[in-house]
Amino acid sequence: MKNRTARVQELIRNELGNILGRELTFDAQLVTIHTVSVTPDLRQCHVYLSALGEEHQKHAALQKLRDNRIMLQNALSKRVVLKYTPQLVFHLDDSIERGVRVVRLLDELGVPPADEPPGEPAR
């Protein structure tokens, strides 16, 4: 990934997070943007987010973002000056939940963490 692309992604992530905090309210307890990935031509922006709450609250938050996509793009275009404002595409990111599930399964199996040498008791 090129330096410019990384800077644009970070800028979009920060500004979009600020816009979401001020402009929209969600039924889910917490909606956060994890990662933003722009295409090399900066025409499309994939926004990966997580939402804490029940499954229907997560999907309602995702649908609300999709319904307000045009408004979010307009607000973003006023804060981030690019030749083209990227089209926002929203995705739910459940990587944290999957990670917690894996850790729970490893705990149930009794597998020690990677940084702990085998044979030593857990603290």
Outline of this structure?
The chain has 123 residues and is of the alpha+beta class. Helices cover 49% and strands 20% of the residues.
Observed structural traits:
123 residues, 3 strands, alpha+beta, 3-stranded mixed sheet, GMP Synthetase, Chain A, domain 3, 49% helix
Binned strand content: 15-25%
What is the terminal-to-terminal distance?
A: 40 Å
Shape: globular
Mean pLDDT: 84
Per CATH, the class reads Alpha Beta
**Fraction of helical residues:** 40-55%
Query: Order of strands side by side in the largest beta sheet?
Result: 1-2-3
Oligomer: single chain
The arrangement of helices and strands along the chain is HEEHHEH
What structural class do you assign from the helix and strand content?
A: alpha+beta
The total count of helices amounts to: 4
**Total beta-strand segments:** 3
CATH H-level superfamily title: K homology (KH) domain
Indicate how many domains the architecture comprises: 1
**CATH architecture designation:** 2-Layer Sandwich
Kindly provide the radius of gyration, computed on alpha-carbon positions and rounded to a whole number of angstroms.
19 Å
Q: Could you describe the largest sheet, including whether it forms a barrel?
A: 3 strands, mixed
Q: What fold name goes in the CATH topology slot?
A: GMP Synthetase, Chain A, domain 3
Low-confidence runs: none
